[in-house]
Structure formats: structure tokens, C-alpha cells
From TrEMBL:
Keywords: Hydrolase, Signal. The lineage of its organism: Bacteria, Bacillati, Bacillota, Bacilli, Bacillales. Residues 213-310 form the M23ase beta-sheet core domain. Pfam families: Peptidase_M23. InterPro entries: Cell_wall_metabolism_enzyme, Dup_hybrid_motif, Lysozyme-like_dom_sf, M23ase_b-sheet_dom. The keyword Hydrolase applies. This is L-Ala--D-Glu endopeptidase. It comes from the Bacteria. CDD domains: M23_peptidase (cd12797). Its EC number is 3.4.-.-. One of its GO terms (molecular function) is metalloendopeptidase activity.
Length: 341
């Protein structure tokens, strides 16, 4: 059939465009080279299916990030030789009523209602083949059309979880803005030349509003000290929280949620949905919180900084202290290098 010849030709073009074979590129390697190869693959599928490459890249990044957080070990999880990390549940791929667990025949898969497709023209719909998997996901996402609303409907139908749709949509926005998958870099939450102090307080008991643990690290600094974005991300929330006072929430490129609380105010340059980069000033240290909107002064001024991982069906807090120490040390080293030049 004509489309199989097109797929085969496109595959040749794709393989010529990358320097490493698909079969040996590790899915968990976040090098710039691998990021470029993934982008070439997603652009290749966009040319065939019409689905924007940013959506395919966002699904891939979301799947890999969630898998790291939840430590999934399902049979359908990508092997270490895969270039991408997209994982389609086996039953969904082959069809729930399909008696063959390892069926790779596109016709029988379609007969039993599976979504698996042949993406490279070899006559097989192989769950372990990057081209088959990405082509299948592209066809699934494009079933209702190619506008953002159409693609969001397909995403919700696939994941049936609002958080997944919002996170992937945020990643799409990042990739559209930067036109690259290689988004690296970090910044300590407050400028190093300001006076500040902090220690590991994650997990300490807290009593206001009921017994709970402290889900973050407190960085004590003077009123008005600039608060900075630590990673590339998208602002998800901005406003008042009874516990955190004036707070900002940012979802980064690894789908981690960064929570900045007890602020004195926001940088008016930013609003919900905006893209931020490491070092962008997003607000200022204060002592707001523990009450109705405007409550302030119940504790010394400080930044409460928390980070949360998405496991695909919910989020959990984890200790930000190691990341803070690493970012602080990296920034000091970079500053020292600049002074020596």
C-alpha cells in the first residue's frame, strides 16, 4: 500500500538524520545528542501524521518522568535500548479480548480493537519498536483533529486524568517556546549575594491547621529578597493559600512541581501560564500565610520551598534540601569561574 511505502521511505530519511541507531540509544540518557535524535523522530512523525512534534515530545517526557517517580516495572515499559520512553499498556495495544499477549499483526490487533500500528512498514506492530509506538500514539492523538483542543480531548481519553493533560500541555508550551528538548540549567531560589540561611527541615512536625509534616525547606531571608525560579517551567498557580500565604507553583520540564510560599508579593511581569527560566525573579520573600488573605507576620520572613513529584495518579512531596545544596554549590562554582576570566 502507498502509505507503507511512504513510511519506509520516511524511515530511511529518519535513520540517516541521526548518528546513533535507534536500537542502541538509551531511553534514560538525557544528553543533548539524544534529545536531538528524539526531536528528529517526533518531527518525522509530524510530517506523516500532522500531529505537532511538541505533543509527541511532551507525551514522551511525561511518560519518562512519571516512570522515574513511580518506579513502574510493567511489561510494557520501554526497554533500555529504546530511544523514547512512551509506554502503551499491552492490553490497549493488542486489544483487550486478543488471546495473543504478544500479537504484532496489525490486522488482528485492529480486529480486537487494539490501537497498535505498524510505523515503519515492516508489517509488524511491535510494542518494543520506537517507530511503531510513536506512530501509534500520533495516530491516537490526531483522531479528533489537530487543534490544541482536539489534542487535549485525545490526551484525556488516553490518560483519563486531568493532571496528566495539564502537565503535558505545559510541556508543549515549553517546547514551542524554546524549540528544543534540551532544557537544562538551575538556579538557587534566592540570589547568593543576599543574606540568607537554611537547614533541612523537611519532615519536621507542624501544628497550624492540624498535625502534619513540613513539606519543604525554609530559607530565611529579609523582607523583599528576590525569589527566583529554579528550573525551566510553566507557572501553574499564583495567589493566596491559607497555609502558604501568597504563593507560586511552577511545573518544570521534568514534571516536578515547585512550591514557593509565604511571599511578600509577586513579580507583576508574570501570570499563570507564563514560561519561566532558571534565575527569573518571580516574587519576594515575606511572612504571609496561616490565615485569611492578607494575613502576615505570624513568623519571621522566609521562603518556604517545596517540591512534589507526579506519579501519574497523584503527587507526593520529597525532600528539596539535596537539590538546594546542589544548585547553590553549582551557582557558586559558576560565579567563581566567571571571576577568574
Amino acid at each position: 500500500m502507498w502509505y507503507k511505502r511512504l513510511l519506509a521511505f520516511s524511515l530511511i530519511v529518519f535513520l540517516c538524520a541521526v548518528s546513533l541507531p535507534v536500537s542502541v540509544a538509551r531511553a534514560d540518557t538525557d544528553s543533548e545528542q539524544v534529545s536531538r535524535e528524539r526531536k528528529v523522530l517526533f518531527e518525522h512523525m509530524q510530517a506523516i501524521t500532522g500531529v505537532p512534534w511538541q505533543y509527541l515530545a511532551a507525551v514522551d517526557q511525561y511518560e519518562r518522568s512519571v516512570r522515574k517517580s513511580s518506579k513502574k516495572t510493567e511489561d510494557s515499559s520501554p526497554s533500555q535500548t529504546r530511544l523514547t520512553g512512551i509506554s502503551v499498556p499491552s492490553a490497549m495495544w493488542r486489544g483487550v479480548l486478543n488471546p495473543l499477549d504478544t500479537d504484532v499483526n496489525p490486522r488482528s490487533i485492529a480486529f480486537f480493537g487494539g490501537i497498535g500500528k505498524d510505523g515503519d512498514g515492516d508489517g509488524k506492530a511491535d510494542l518494543r519498536n520506537d517507530l511503531d509506538v510513536v506512530y501509534t500514539i500520533a495516530c491516537y492523538l490526531g483522531q479528533f483533529g489537530f487543534t490544541d483542543n482536539d489534542l487535549r480531548i485525545s490526551l484525556w481519553q488516553y490518560y483519563t486524568y486531568d493532571r496528566s493533560v495539564e502537565t503535558i500541555s505545559g510541556l508543549v508550551k515549553l517546547y514551542r517556546h524554546h524549540n528544543t528538548l534540551h532544557l537544562v540549567g538551575s538556579a538557587f531560589p534566592v540570589p547568593l549575594h543576599y543574606s540568607y540561611s537554611y537547614k533541612n527541615t523537611w519532615g519536621d512536625p507542624r501544628g497550624w491547621g492540624g498535625r502534619r509534616i513540613h513539606e519543604g525547606t525554609d530559607i530565611f531571608a529579609g523582607y523583599g529578597t528576590p525569589v527566583r525560579a529554579t528550573r525551566h517551567g510553566v507557572i501553574e498557580s499564583m495567589g493566596w493559600n491559607p497555609y502558604g500565604g501568597w504563593r507560586i507553583g511552577i511545573r518544570d520540564v521534568d514534571t516536578i512541581y515547585h512550591y514557593y510560599a509565604h511571599l511578600n508579593g509577586f513579580n507583576k511581569k508574570f501570570k499563570v501560564g507564563d514560561i519561566v527560566a532558571p534565575g527569573d525573579v518571580i516574587g519576594y520573600v515575606g511572612s504571609s500565610g496561616y490565615g485569611k488573605p492578607g494575613t502576615s507576620g505570624k513568623f519571621p520572613p522566609h521562603l518556604h520551598y517545596g517540591i512534589y513529584k507526579d506519579r501519574g495518579n497523584g503527587e507526593y512531596s520529597f525532600d528539596p534540601y539535596p537539590s538546594l545544596k546542589r544548585w547553590e554549590n553549582e551557582e557558586r562554582k559558576n560565579q567563581s569561574k566567571k571571576k577568574k576570566r
